[in-house]
Amino acid sequence: MTKWLFHRQLDSAVTAQSLRTLLSDEWLLPKYLIRQLRINQRVLVNHQYHPVNTIVHAGDQIQLEFVTSDFTHLPHPITVDPAGTVEVVYEDHDLLIVNKHRGEKTHPNQPGELGSTLNFAANYLASKGEAPYMVHRLDMETSGALIIAKNPVAVPILNRQISNKIIERTYLTWVHGVGLPKSGTIDLPIGRDPEDKRKRKVNGINAQSALTHYQVLKEQAGNSLLQVNLKTGRTHQIRVHLAASGHSLIGDPLYSNDNIEQPMLLHSWQVVFPLLFSHQWQTVMAPVPKGFEPSS
């Protein structure tokens, strides 16, 4: 049975609070994991088990131990694929951030499938006795920073950080046209396109609220380079919103009518996130790929 151990000393930013509040509200552990820690007495304060209503303070030593049986729905292991590599831009005990290659699938769709970023990450981590766990995905034609968990404990925490918009992700994209306001917000609900199951559309089926902030960085030869921040995470959100604004992404195979064939110009450029079980923040940037500009 695999075990995952975490040791943390609470820093001065931690106020006096119950252990349960620390685990749930600050460290974002889901209830089912807190329950396993409690009933199996695998959470220690200063090297001793204490009930979760115990008040903890700055300077206290906290130890958490998780085991395989705590996770009832572990995904199928990702098959190792040595045929490709990953460009690691950040790594710690809990997660990996790689600069995903444009044209590469994020994850396999079937057990045993090869050729995705996660397959290549599995090969990278295998030599360390570790394995990748998917947290989020990037479209096949999108490059840039992709967060990959290195243990199942990190997965629900990172998922909550993403869904609660604690993790901030910034994209770069080239779009058709100029004349956009220097900065702006697109607030249009996005749902499924009834005429094409691959696509999404504004006010489509089961539309959900979607909020995109952008800033114009440069205008060149009738095109615009934008910096984009998402406040929601709908499928194809950047692509749908900018197409609806009349400024579709250059190279977008679904939402743009490009006269010149070229790769889609969308790059996950920067990620800002808190380290697990910590008040420390980390900023990671994924280098922009060569050729990230409109074809002449």
Structure description:
The chain has 296 residues and is of the alpha+beta class. The chain contains 5 helices and 19 strands. It has helices at residues 19-26, 31-39, 117-126, 154-163, 237-244; strands at residues 3-9, 17-18, 43-45, 48-49, 55-56, 61-67, 88-91, 95-100, 133-134, 143-149, 168-176, 183-187, 190-192, 200-202, 205-208, 211-220, 223-230, 266-274, 281-285. It starts with a strand and ends in an 11-residue tail after the last strand. The active site is at residue 139.
Sheet-strand content, in percent, reads 25-35%
Give the integer mean of the pLDDT values: 94
What form results from the Cα inertia axes? globular
Order of helices and strands: EEHHEEEEEEHEEHEEEEEEEHEE
Largest sheet entry: 10 strands, mixed
Keywords:
alpha+beta; Structural Genomics Hypothetical 15.5 Kd Protein In mrcA-pckA Intergenic Region, Chain A; Pseudouridine synthase; four-stranded antiparallel sheet; globular; RluA_PseudoU_synthase; RNA binding; pseudouridine synthase activity; PsdUridine_synth_cat_dom_sf
Overview in brief:
15% of the residues lie in helices and 33% in strands.
Topology of helices and strands:
Blueprint: E1 3-9, E2 17-18, H1 19-26, H2 31-39, E3 43-45, E4 48-49, E5 55-56, E6 61-67, E7 88-91, E8 95-100, H3 117-126, E9 133-134, E10 143-149, H4 154-163, E11 168-176, E12 183-187, E13 190-192, E14 200-202, E15 205-208, E16 211-220, E17 223-230, H5 237-244, E18 266-274, E19 281-285
Parallel strand pairs: 10-18
Antiparallel strand pairs: 1-6, 2-5, 3-4, 3-6, 7-8, 8-10, 9-10, 11-17, 11-18, 12-16, 13-14, 13-15, 16-17, 18-19
